[in-house]
Amino acid sequence: MSDERSATRRRHVLGTIGGGLGLALLGSSGVSGAATDRVVDAAADDRRYRLPDLPYEYGALEPHIDERIMELHHGEHHQAYVDGANEALEEFDTRRATDDFAEIRAPKREFSFNYSGHVNHTIFWENLGPDGGGTPEGEFATAIDERFGSFETFQLEFSATADQVEGDGWAMLFYEPLADTLVIGQLEDQHELAHQAAVPILTLDVWEHAYYLQYENDREAYVEAWWNVVDWADVARRYDFVTDHLAGIEPAGERLDDHALEPEPDRQAHESAEKRKSDGPP
Ligand SMILES: [Fe+2]
C-alpha cells in the first residue's frame, strides 16, 4: 500500500470506522451520501428501511439467472426482509413506550435475521451485472493472488464453500480489517456464523429461492453459472473502499493510546480546563 493511501487510511481508522463500514455496505456508489436513500428512507423521522432498485432489468442476467427468479427474489423475498426489519423496529418503539422488555429476545432475533437479509441482498444485486464474468483486475486481483495463491484456487474455495452451506445461507468474501486480509466464509440463514468487523464485498445467495425454479436441486450448477454474472469492477470498488477506510484496525487500547499521544485541539483545551479545575484557583 502506498504511503499516501496508508496516511489516508490512518486518518479514517480513528474517526470513521462506523461510518466507513456502513457506507461500504451500501454498494458500489455507496461512497456518496445519496446512496443511503436507496436502502433507508432517510427523509422519514424513523429512518425505516426500503427496497433498493436493481441496477439492471430482471431479465438482464439471463441465461444464467432467469427473469422470474429475479422478479420473485427481489420483489418478494428481499421486500420481506425489509418489511421484517421495519416491523422489528416498530416493536422496539412500542416496547420502549412502556419500558416493557419482557421476552425481548424474539424481536431482537427477528431484527438480526431480517436486517442481515436486507444488507446481504443489497450487496448481492450490485455484485452482479449483465456484463459480468471474467477475472478481477488491479489491486484487488493482486490481493486475491496473494491470499489464495491464484484466482482459480480462490474460485474453487469459494464454490466449495457455497456448495457446502448446510441448508439455506450464503458464501461470502469478506475483507477482514484486523489482519488486513481476505477471508471466504459461510453464513447460515441470513445472520448465523457472523464474522464480526469483517465486511462482505462479494456475496452469493444459496437459499433455494435464489435458484430452484431454474436449477431445481442442482446448487452446484447454479454456483457455476453465477460466476458468469459477477461484476468484478463492483467487487474491486468495494475492496478499495474498505481497505482505504478500515485496514489495520488496531485493538482499542492501542488506538486510545495513539489518541492520547495526538490530542485534537478541542480535546487539549478540555483537558487543560479540567486540569485547572482539579488544581484549584491559581
Ligand atoms: Fe435471497
Description:
With about 280 residues, this protein is mainly α. It has one domain: minor pseudopilin epsh fold. The chain contains twelve helices and three strands; from the N terminus they run αααααααβββααααα. A three-stranded antiparallel sheet has the order 2-1-3. A hairpin with a 4-residue loop joins strand 1 and strand 2. The longest helix is centred in the first third of the chain and has 32 residues. It is globular and about 55 Å long. The N terminus is likely disordered. The structure holds fe (ii) ion.
How would you describe this structure in keywords?
oxidoreductase; minor pseudopilin epsh fold; metal ion binding; mainly alpha; Mn/Fe_SOD; binds fe (ii) ion; single chain; 282 residues; 3-stranded antiparallel beta sheet
Shape: globular
Number of domains: 1
Total E-strand runs: 3
Distance between the termini: 51 Å
Rg over alpha carbons? 22 Å
Report the major sheet: 3 strands, antiparallel
Instruction: State the CATH superfamily name.
Output: Iron/manganese superoxide dismutase, C-terminal domain
Give the proportion of residues in helices.
Answer: 55-70%
Low-confidence stretches: 1-20, 27-34
The CATH C-level class name: Alpha Beta
Mean pLDDT: 83
Q: What ligand molecules are bound, each kind once? A: fe (ii) ion
Enzyme class: oxidoreductase
InterPro entries: Fe/Mn_Superoxide_Dismutase, Mn/Fe_SOD, Mn/Fe_SOD_BS, Mn/Fe_SOD_C, Mn/Fe_SOD_N, Mn/Fe_SOD_N_sf, SOD_C_sf, TAT_signal
Family: Belongs to the iron/manganese superoxide dismutase family.
GO molecular function: metal ion binding; superoxide dismutase activity
